[in-house]
C-alpha cells in the first residue's frame, strides 16, 4: 500500500505536526524529513530575495529516493511543510502537490489565527487533521 507523510516544522526544525498514512513506519520518515531540511535550507538560500519578491513558497521536489519523493514548501515566516509520497505514485502532478501545500498553508494560517493556540506548540486541531487526512487519501 502506498505511503505518504506530512510534516510541519517551525524555523527551529522540531516537528509541530506529523501525519503518516498508514501510521506504521512513521519513525523512519523522521530521518527522511530531517535529511530533506538541508535541501530546504539550500533552496531558500539560493532563492534569497527572490523568495520574498515573488512570494513563491513552493520549493518543489527536494529529492527523490528509490522508494519516495520528498516535496517542500516554506511560508514567509520560515515554517516548513514537507511531504513524502511513494515513488510508485506517478499520477501525482506538480500542480496537485503545489495545490495541496497551499491548502495546508491556509489551514495552518487558520490555526495561527486561533487565539487559544500558542505559536510553537504542537498542532492539535480536528479541522487540520481532517484536511490533512483527506489530502493524504488523495495521494495514496
From TrEMBL:
One of its GO terms (cellular component) is endoplasmic reticulum. GO terms for biological process: endoplasmic reticulum to Golgi vesicle-mediated transport. It holds the Pfam family Sedlin_N. Gene3D superfamilies: 3.30.450.70. Keywords: Cytoplasm, Endoplasmic reticulum, ER-Golgi transport, Golgi apparatus, Transport. Its main location: cytoplasm. It is found in: Cytoplasm, Perinuclear region; Endoplasmic reticulum; Golgi apparatus. CDD domains: TRAPPC2L. Belongs to the TRAPP small subunits family. Sedlin subfamily. PANTHER family: TRAFFICKING PROTEIN PARTICLE COMPLEX SUBUNIT 2. This is Trafficking protein particle complex subunit 2-like protein. It comes from Menura novaehollandiae (superb lyrebird).
Amino acid at each position: 500500500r502506498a505511503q505518504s507523510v506530512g510534516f510541519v516544522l517551525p524555523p527551529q526544525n522540531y516537528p509541530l505536526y506529523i501525519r503518516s498514512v498508514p501510521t506504521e513506519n512513521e519513525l523512519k520518515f523522521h530521518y527522511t524529513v530531517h535529511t530533506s531540511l538541508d535541501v530546504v535550507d539550500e533552496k531558500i538560500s539560493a532563492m534569497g530575495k527572490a523568495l520574498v519578491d515573488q512570494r513563491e513558497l513552493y520549493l518543489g521536489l527536494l529529492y527523490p529516493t528509490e522508494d519516495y519523493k520528498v516535496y517542500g514548501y516554506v511560508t514567509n515566516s520560515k515554517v516548513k511543510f514537507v511531504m513524502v509520497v511513494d515513488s510508485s505514485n506517478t499520477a501525482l502532478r506538480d500542480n496537485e502537490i503545489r495545490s495541496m501545500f497551499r491548502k495546508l498553508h491556509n489551514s495552518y494560517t487558520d490555526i495561527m489565527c486561533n487565539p487559544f493556540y500558542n505559536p510553537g506548540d504542537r498542532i492539535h486541531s480536528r479541522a487540520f487533521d481532517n484536511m490533512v487526512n483527506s489530502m493524504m487519501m488523495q495521494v495514496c
